[in-house]
Amino acid sequence: MTHAGIRLRNCLIFFHRWFGVLVCLVFLIWFASGAILMYWDFPGVNAADRLGREPVLDGSRILISPDAAFKLLQTDRPPDELHLVTFDGHPVYRFVFEGEPQMVRADDGLILSEFPPQLTLRIAAAWTGLPPADAKAEANTEEDQWTVAGEFQAWRPLRKYSWPNGEEVYVSTVTGDVVQYTTRSSRIGAYLGAIPHWLYFTPLRKHGPTWRRVVIWTSGLGTITALLGFIIGVWIYSPAKRFPGGGTPARIPYTGQKRWHLILGLFFGPLAISWVFSGMLSMDPFLKMQSGNSQATEAPLAEALRGSPIRLTAYDAKPPREAIRQAAAAFEVRELELTSLAGQPYFLATGESHQQLVIPLDGEPTSEFDRTKIFDVLRKAASPNELTAIRAVTEYESYYLDRRNRLPLPALFVQLNDSERSMYYVDPKTARIVRSYNLHSRWNRWFYRGLHSIDLPWLYKHRPAWDIVVLVLLAGGESLCVTSFLLAWSVVGRKVRGNLERPS
User: Fold this and answer.
1) How many CA atoms lie within 13 Å of 245's alpha carbon, on the beta-carbon side?
2) From first to last of its 504 residues, what are the pLDDT tens digits of the chain?
3) Residue (of 252, 249, 280) closest to 264 by Cα position
4) What is the 3-state secondary structure (H, E, C) of 66-111?
5) Do 303 and 246 meet the contact criterion of CB atoms below 8 Å apart?
6) For a designed S-S bond to 186, which of 43, 166, 352, 370 qualifies (C-beta 3.0 to 4.6 A apart)?
7) What single string gives the DSSP state of each residue in 414-479?
8) Phi and psi angles of residue 45, each rounded to the nearest 5 degrees, phi first
9) For residues 48-69, b (16+ Cβ closer than 10 Å) or e, as one string?
10) Measured in Å, how far apart are the chain's first and last C-alpha atoms?
11) What is the DSSP code (8-state) at residue 47?
């Protein structure tokens, strides 16, 4: 090797060593917490949680029509969404205007605009099924570990209720909704998994832009460190066994931890590079990866599926209680949505296990909306572009995949011939777009989800194959990180001892 080559290699080793000192502990934590995060999410409240805890809707108590309830709000804005649910023992119309909910009781017309402590306590107790008298109440006006995300700001102030068994419920005083729920086990899982993996520590996370920059720069530095290490390993490794090794030729000039570090780096270095880089992509450091024209085309398609704002007087033809009666033959209705397809009004009834029925105003319930009509609406809305692909999706595929099986099946797939080759998946049970891609987000799907979650359809189909593969890879990456940490510790230790032993 030339002197220039030796100097370059030594320079790479220098930077890899000291970058490794800076990030080796973070790598160690990331790989270990990744295994926990496979099975324990950060605590949260999703639609399935709400549905599973909502009481059955009592149609006999719905005495006020949707139009009459809307008039009580004295607004000219048409609602973006309208649902009938049970709230504090009463059937309630839940109107949503640009993300802001307003509720009117369907039995007596009372507008719910304030949520005093005694009401939010009842809501929290009903969520847990535990006695209200056993709850400890406290105000939650600032971020804590479980409400640090920015989405909670619109719901503050919150009231937090804790029970002796470890259940904690956060209720918004703005909307009356349960917005966060944790248990002792879910908090432990988060402390071991999501929080260290996402660097989701409250003092850092509550400063959103700073947290984002820290994650991006730490991931970027980690990517460079791992890449340098792999380059050095390939450079040093000698298939011809040109290194002396205790009397026999060797492929690697090191012994002990250095030897193991180089061997593990050759095997698992590419994995470390791809995982840390793809983790950085989760923070959208390159906005081009997420941008594109499909976002501009999705909105018109979604609006066309809904059509013009619904005339609430149309529901006088079939009152909500009649729709509930019709659906009750199939399941107990927990939620009734007043929705539309291309401006034509429908009811959408949902049960505890997310069973759904589409109920027209002039007919019997059906399992889904008319697929032909959905395709026709999308075809017209896409003009002047054309639909180049139309098909039904009956099982998960490369761009429509969910490890926890929460994405609805069947789905309808359409693709446009626009410059982005935009593609959409529509749920025929709701006539809503549930997943969309453009040219850039397709790349992001593979660079982020594909590399970071090993999000591969054939592995998901044959679980526990996915679990075994990912856990083995994580164990290999963790082993590499352990050697990194031990070497970094020895490097820092030598420097500290050298400074202490140096004569003053």
Assistant:
1) 14
2) 677 777 888 888 888 888 888 898 999 999 999 999 999 999 999 988 999 999 999 999 999 999 999 999 999 899 999 999 999 999 999 999 988 999 999 999 999 999 999 999 999 999 999 999 999 999 888 899 999 999 999 999 999 999 999 999 999 999 999 999 999 999 999 999 999 999 999 999 999 999 999 999 999 999 999 999 999 989 888 887 787 766 678 888 888 888 899 999 999 999 999 999 999 988 888 765 554 445 567 889 999 999 988 889 999 999 999 999 999 999 999 999 999 999 999 999 999 988 999 999 999 999 999 999 999 999 999 999 999 999 999 999 999 998 888 899 999 999 999 989 999 999 999 999 999 999 888 888 888 888 898 888 888 888 899 999 999 999 999 999 999 988 888 878 777 776 666 665
3) 252
4) HHHHHHHCCCCCCCCEEEEEEECCEEEEEEEECCEEEEEECCCCCE
5) no
6) 43
7) EEE-STT--EEEEETTTTEEEEEE-HHHHHHIIIIIIHHS---HHHHHTTTHHHHHHHHHHHHHHH
8) -120, 120
9) eeebebbeebbbeebebbbebb
10) 40
11) H
Q: How many residues does the chain have?
A: 504
In the block, tokens 């709000």 appear at: 73
What does the alpha-carbon distance between residue 360 and residue 374 come to, in Å, rounded to a whole number? 15
| Cα→Cα distances 218→34, 415, 450, 454, Å | 16, 38, 21, 22
Residue 397 is classified by DSSP as B
Q: What residue type is 328 in one-letter code?
A: A
What Cα–Cα distance (Å) separates residue 153 from each residue in 173, 206, 238, 381?
Answer: 12, 11, 58, 36
Structure-token match 């906005």, residue found: 287
Rounded CA-CA distance 436/411 in Å is: 12
CA distances from 421 to 284, 441, 451, 453 (A): 21, 11, 23, 25
> Residue 178: phi, psi to the nearest 5?
-75, 115
And the tokens for 22?
A: 């800076």
Rounded Cα gap, residues 125 and 180, in angstroms = 13
Residue type, 351: G
Sign of the alpha-carbon dihedral angle for 201, 203, 209, 215: negative
Give dist(CA 153, CA 178) in Å, integer: 14
Measuring CA to CA, which residue among 300, 302, 310 is closest to residue 431? 302
